[in-house]
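Ticket #4471: structure output looks truncated?

Reporter: J.K.
Steps to reproduce: submitted the chain below (365 residues) through the standard prediction queue, then opened the result file.
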Amino acid sequence: MASRSARSRVLLFTSCPYEGGAGADTRLAASIADCMPDRDFLWFTRWPSRGSRGPTRGKGIPIVSRDGAPHVPERLQVALAGGVLARRTDLVHAVLTIGGTYPLFSRLRRGLLGGGPVIHTVPGVMDAGLLERARPLGTTVALSEATAGQLRSAGFGDVRVIPPTIPLDRWPWRPRTTGSPPVVLFAGHHDPQGGAREAVTAAAEAHRRGARFRLVLAMRARPGQDERALEAELRTLAAREGLPEVDVQGHVPDMPGLLGATDVLLFPPRQLGGKADVPFVVLEALATGRPVILSDLPQFAGLGDAASRAPVGDRHRTGELLARLLERPRQWEMQARLGRATVEELFGPDRFRAQYERLYKEALA
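Returned output as attached by the reporter:
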């Protein structure tokens, strides 16, 4: 093990290469590495390389991967490499969503990760039923009080809450565009409870109330999903609901540009299903100065009044909130400024860094 008097070495343990940056796990790992330059990180990188850059300090450990996603081969390589590297570093920082394979992984923790200190940041929990068979890896970090309560109730013991962060310099405040019609954006996955269908039906309700806008659905497919068929289903639903202007897109390479051209982010999932407790797109929209409408899930409570919330599955209330924001410029401006201020205060990188630095010092003491 490396000397504790030297710069500490930390293994960022994720289920796929660092460059699989579309997921919450790798996005959070990137935030941790970027905010803590005084640590030497080891992270998993994609091979063959596609020119992506990892943390500025430390070393990338190559993992053979076709697309960077956490397929079974990637997970097996990560487990094997992690078992070796965990014994050569001072601290393992696992950034893993609690999904279907986590209970088994947690029971093999000592054999895979050794007996050294482990911090486990939990972006989200795919199914609360999994917690009955799961065990903590070490000190656990949740992104919200709601998930922290779930984990404590499941016997995880020492659970801290550290909300996520985003680089505010990449997501500056932008004045509202003057385009016509206004743009309402949903960005997420094709998950059954992920909110895309709810966004369409709520937008249709706002349209029936007289609001005029263009709905953009920026969708990302999961491995194994038929993306074309799922996009066609959304277009069919929009037509059936009478929405005249709907644009269904796949992966968006320029998300800052899309949010800058957006007027309102509409994100009404029934369940988060493993997405980060505070999805990054929500923070990015608030930072950009775009009002956000959410379903009233307990994980969103930490946003306070920065986002508008409607009961889960209530298309009428969600549509009403959308119509009001589009029709009332002063309310739009107030929500936009409150959103930016909330991200700066509660989700800024300085606060994030300070909380993790304290946790690292405690773990390495």
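Triage note (M.O.): checked the attachment and the full token line is present. The CA atoms of residues 322 and 328 lie 10 Å apart.
Status: closed, working as intended.
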